[in-house]
Amino acid sequence: MMLEIENLQAEVGGNLILKGLNLTINAGEIHAIMGPNGAGKSTLSYALGGRPGYEVTGGSATLLGKDLLAMEPHERAAAGLFLGFQYPVEIPGISNVQFLREALNSQRRARGEEPLSAADFLRLAREKAGLLGMDMEMLKRSVNVGFSGGEKKRAEMVHMGILDPTLAILDETDSGLDIDALKTVGAGINAIMRAPDKAVLLITHYQRLLDYVEPDFVHILADGRIVRTGGPELAVALEREGYAEVIAA
Amino acid sequence: MSRLAALPTKRDEAWRYSDLDAVARVWPVDEPERIVVPAGEARTLNLLQDAGADDVVIRDYRIEIGAGGTFDVHLLNSGGVLGRVTFDVTLARGAHFELKAALIGSDTQTMELITTVTHAEPEATSQQTVRAIAAGRSTTSYLGQIRVARDAQKTDAGQSFKAMLLDRTATANAKPELEIFADDVKCAHGATVGELDKAALFYMASRGLDPAAAQALLLRAFIAGLFDDMADEAERARFDAAALARLEALG
Fold this sequence. Notes:
Chain A is of the alpha/beta class and about 250 residues long. Chain A has helices at about 40-50, 75-80, 95-110, 120-130, 135-140, 150-165, 180-195, 230-240, 245-249; strands spanning about 5-10, 15-25, 30-35, 55-65, 65, 80-85, 90-95, 140-145, 165-170, 200-205, 215-220, 225-230. Chain B has helices at about 1-5, 20-25, 200-205, 210-225, 235-250; strands at about 35, 40-50, 55-65, 70-75, 80-90, 95-105, 110-120, 125-135, 140-150, 155-165, 170-180, 185-195. The chains are: A alpha/beta (about 250), B alpha/beta (about 250).
């Protein structure tokens, strides 16, 4: 079992947002969580990532048997978790290359592995940037500064490629993407994460990303709980009929 | 000498934020070091102040820049219980004064930079860029006075001060002061005091950076560029290494 979430409850600013969420993801699987605004989708990703202000008040979450909630955010990353941000943060003055090399080597040190040399890192970065059709020149610029919405999302996938996580939680990675960028990002997710020993949780509003990254399971999140689970056909039904119809059915 | 004999008090504006107990340990201090830049010539001063934890360092400079001359200062002020550097600069016609400074304090350190830049004649320019990082219960202060004489038309003077407070107990003081007696001048000054971006810290943690490494990276970016234009590469490397070591020790 890759990720096991049991009866997860989480508060933001004193408001209970997740109200007993259960979800199991096995290695090799791609899951999608869809749901209306305010259902708790982003709260789920932040609670699992350990963002300050997102307080877990009950339940459990384990990654490959390890208690995720007991770890600091950077330890969760070293344990194999990657969080793709809906709104990637701009960091002026720090280049992507510098940032990612330090991040990767920080993870490697935490796992007792040797740090990667500058030359080996650049080789890896060039390969992963190429996968997402991103120019190395962009990776030499400050993290996300001056990037368009689509470029930020592609850069997130380059980060994911370089850090090579076991489980990726991608929060609305499809928002702000035009059709071409959507195809590129979809292909990137497949290339990086579709493997027997990896898994993905896609958080999305729309079915369109799922045309390119076909999920094994689709869950509907409403009012802090998963209310329905199905296959890809559930996403199609949602797109056709809307959340209210499908949740009520 | 008689002026220097009396220990300063907090009533003296230039000493208001200082550590007077520390000052008393080294008082009276030497006369200011006088530097004269001849007309049309260029001089530089690279001052890396990283004295030991118990030291008290007070360095005063009186600088006269001749017509068309330039004086370029790079300062890293980060050592001692008190590190105080003052520049009293007078610019002749068309002269230029450039100051790039980083003040880094932790524990109970007091790091100060006090400048008085007098544009005595027309067409002189000055630019001061100061970045301060204060951790623990430290105090960092930048008091920057710009004086523009009555006939110093076409003066262009700039000051930029940004401070980063790492703890609630740390202090940053900024006091720009402009005295302008000419009417055709440009004087720009800006001062901000902030904290590390929490969203950036979580973003960096989510990529695997531990909190100390993330903080050091953000602080490096905060002072990045201050020493980039140093002509002497070995000196630049020495400043960068000293700043980095200091920032990593703050984690």
